[in-house]
Amino acid sequence: GSLIEQLTTEKYECMVCCEVVRIVAPVWSCQNCYHVFHLNCIKKWARSPASQAEDGNSGWRCPACQNASVQVPKTYTCFCGKVHNPEWNRNEIPHSCGELCGKKRQCLDCPHLCNILCHPGPCPSCPAFVTKTCECGQTSHSVRCGQSTKIHCSNVCGNTLNCGKHSCTQVCHAGKCSPCQLTVQQACYCGSSFKEVLCGSKEEFSDGFGSFSCQNICGKKLNCGRHNCKQVCHPQPCQLCPRLPQVVYRCPCGQTPLSKLLELGCVERKICTDPIPSCGKTCGKPLSCGSYEFIHTCESLCHEGDCRPCSHTSNIYCRCGFKKKVIRTLGGLFFLLLIAAITFMCDKRCNKKRSCGRHKCNEVCCVDTEHKCSLVCGRKLNCGLHRCEEPCHRGSCQTCWQTSFDELTCYCGESVIYPPVPCGTQPPECKKTCTRPHDCDHPVYHSCHSEEKCPPCTYLTQKWCMGKHELRSNIPCHLTDISCGLRCNQMLKCGMHKCKRICHKGECLIDEECKQPCIIPRLYCNHPCMAPCHPSSPCPTTSCCAKVRYPKKIHYEVTAAISIATKLTDLQLGDSVEISRLITKKEMKQARLQCDEECLALQRNRRLAEALEIDDNSDPFNIHSSGPKYSDLLKEDARKDIKFVSDIEKEMRMLVEAVNKGKHTKKSHCYPPMNRDHRRIIHELAQVYGIESVSYDNEPKRNVVITAVKGKSICPSNTLTSVLDKEMQSRPAPPLPHYKQTDRSSGNSGLCKPLKEEPVIDYFDVQD
């Protein structure tokens, strides 16, 4: 009744999706707990790994009662199962066919079918009355059909027991009577042992010779009266003596009939104790140690009794066939060889990948062909909280099937995701302003978020720099360490120097000593000491390394003064000194500074200026005051490949003239792929011409595309090639190369090697 009311009013919820079951939705009902589910939901549940039974072979489990089912529901039927896809009728129960149920009731002994209309849930108990007898069948009573209680009387059962000899002595009871508990003594076939068994059991059977076999040697006297039976305790009479003359027709090895041996003079046997004549041939009986491929035979001469131990060897292989082992049979049985072959394993480990593709087999002496992985996957699922519990597999793991039935809200609680919430679901987005506590009192502009840390505050404030040099404005609130870019200039611990670092945080020198040059003037030349800072010790007495500039005339006078000062010691002793000879011609020659290449170039320019009547301060070629400025590095690269630079400049001038004269505001040109040095030249020339340049693609197909913009790109008055030509004309002739003088004793001489050029970095040629 509760199911009918909830399905009719659409208040019944599916346990899989937690949605209301509509009256027109296809459903499926469990026949064990009678819960109703959406048909599509139960199909998905039955295919999921979470629904599988624990033993893995019993099908899928019902979400409500965990009852295992083998078949997955495929069609939508009414509750009684007669009609497929039943149509909804307002006057009938939803999902029912409106006909009689007709299902068999749960009571096993009720023969009547359910007589109410098609309905959900279990069928009601049968209302009919029937006459039933008690368990022993001696009395009868009228009870309701389907009543589960059994009828018992107070009489003794009296039914015959299983032995057929005795009767049951219990009071009227349910089920079969218990087996007879009386015991009977039995003897074995050979009569050497006895045992007691229950009356009426299978062990009580006897065939006249005995009831069971004691598994010992029979030992009864054979018909010959001289030998005993060597068979295991057996039910039938003992066999004839195997050594009777009328039984033995051949020699012990079986190759020669005794009739032929009698013809050869052998004595005829009269009784069973007479020896059996030997034929003298090799025995050749198959031993039990051989195999199906190679049978070992006895190598002794024809003899009576058991054969001697085998002297052959047998080869057995490990189960994977990698190693072979040789063993001596020693007359052992064949099944012992099989056991040795099965138990013999090599120490080779299998290096093949398992079915998961992640782990190696690593089995010793492996004979597996599929190499299934028995480990648990253990990788994290998409939720990031749980791990995959399936056997290790290939590919991605399935989505997490864990579900939460608690509401998932944002931090402020405005946005809510109602259950069921799949595992790993992120909190909902909220458009309200963040309500978390903040470190500052500035207004909050970011929305509510699920992260524990709020975004940094970007409110613009005024803050002092780290060195307290100036108060900086428009500084975001979250920035704490601000550098003004000025020099620190704080006095160091030495008390002589100031910090030369850019505005920084913390102390200037923490664990280091001041290493700036000492600025205390020297005693004789007044130049600074220049030794590493030594605040607690006097300046060291070292020679001054400061460079001074002397003109030629002053240099000559200083040299003369030094020469006179050296002669004063002779004057103090009373000697006369000739002043005209104080400085010799050789000393005068040594005192003069030698002219270098710069002097020669200045003299040449001065002579040309005087001849052309040009003032030294004038700029006739307008080189210093106007025109583009080309870097020394660009000029040096251009001198190496002047033709390439000329072609590039010609192309750039044509592009600039075309965009300035045409209707379009932009024009581009793509250069072919080239090396890094050529691309750098194009980038630097593009800056001079006001052209945009960008590098595209990767090496070795990297190229440069230039774009001229109308009104921005210009053609300079002096091209790089013209500037280089003018510099070449004004430059003096290069001096002859100097050769490096080596030791004459070695007899070798070599040229001075030029210094290795530093690698040039193209700061324009970067990835976009």
UniProtKB/TrEMBL annotation:
Keywords noted in UniProt:
DNA-binding, Membrane, Metal-binding, Nucleus, Phosphoprotein, Repeat, Repressor, Transcription, Transcription regulation, Transferase, Transmembrane, Transmembrane helix, Ubl conjugation pathway, Zinc, Zinc-finger
**Limits of the RING-type domain:** 14-66
The record's section on PROSITE patterns has: R3H, ZF_PHD_1, ZF_PHD_2, ZF_RING_2
Q: Region entry Disordered: which residue ranges?
A: 726-754
Gene Ontology cellular component annotations, sorted alphabetically: nucleus
Q: Which GO terms describe its biological process?
A: negative regulation of transcription by RNA polymerase II
Report whether Protease shows up as a keyword of the record: no
Q: Which GO terms describe its molecular function?
A: DNA-binding transcription factor activity, RNA polymerase II-specific; RNA polymerase II transcription regulatory region sequence-specific DNA binding; transferase activity; zinc ion binding
**Sequence ranges assigned to domain R3H in this UniProt record:** 642-710
PHD-type domain ranges (all copies): 11-68
> Where are the membrane-spanning stretches?
326-345
Main subcellular localisation:
nucleus
Q: Which cell locations does it reside in? A: Nucleus
- Name the record gives this protein: Transcriptional repressor NF-X1
Q: Which organism is it from?
A: Orthonyx spaldingii
Q: What is the lineage of its organism?
A: Eukaryota, Metazoa, Chordata, Craniata, Vertebrata
